[in-house]
Amino acid sequence: MLLAFDTSSAAVTVALADPVTGATVASSSTVDALRHGELLAPAIEQALAAAGATPRDLTKIAVGVGPGPFTGLRVGLVTARTMGEVLGVEVVGVCSLDVLARQSSLQLPVAVATDARRKEIYWALYDGPAADGSRRRLEGPAVDKPADVAHVLAGLPVIGRGAVLYGEALGLETSDVIEYPSAEVLALGVATGTLPIVAPDPLYLRRPDVTMSGGPKSVLPK
């Protein structure tokens, strides 16, 4: 069984799928930006129970690597890597923006824009879909103020929560109202090889808010 989940956004989304076809066996999605740590493990347990499976039936784990806020993103990645280590199964990552682009049924190029907080968006541009449904990423991922990239996204349908929050600032003419990544699509893309695989490491696009210590400082007056 293939277990897939993504916690890079306000949604906690989980799917259990056939590892060859990607057909969904069980899935769930809950939007709650403050409870990733509380929701993910029960959602995985419920998916396994619905399929009549146990963790030992898992053959691969796929996890969305972001970009996304640190707190929610690390919940998914730590869970995936810990389960992979304990169960001895492969863990693979997928850019969460790629998952969103794969969710669109539009037969033309699209942009993805998700909520990066701080009044910014994570964004990327994608080509039209190939025959197998895959999309080639043309630019990004990057993080910017919506107004600073409005000219880049101009004329494209935009997928993701960022389009909902900042449609006016982006000057959107069209949008594809899909707000959050789907674990079902993540599982399908990994099983069928139609989503690019990356290491299960967090994709952070901002510099850390903290820096390494420069060593002890003198408390004596100068």
From TrEMBL:
Gene3D superfamilies: 3.30.420.40. Residues 35-151 form the Gcp-like domain. NCBIfam families: T6A_YeaZ. This is tRNA (Adenosine(37)-N6)-threonylcarbamoyltransferase complex dimerization subunit type 1 TsaB.
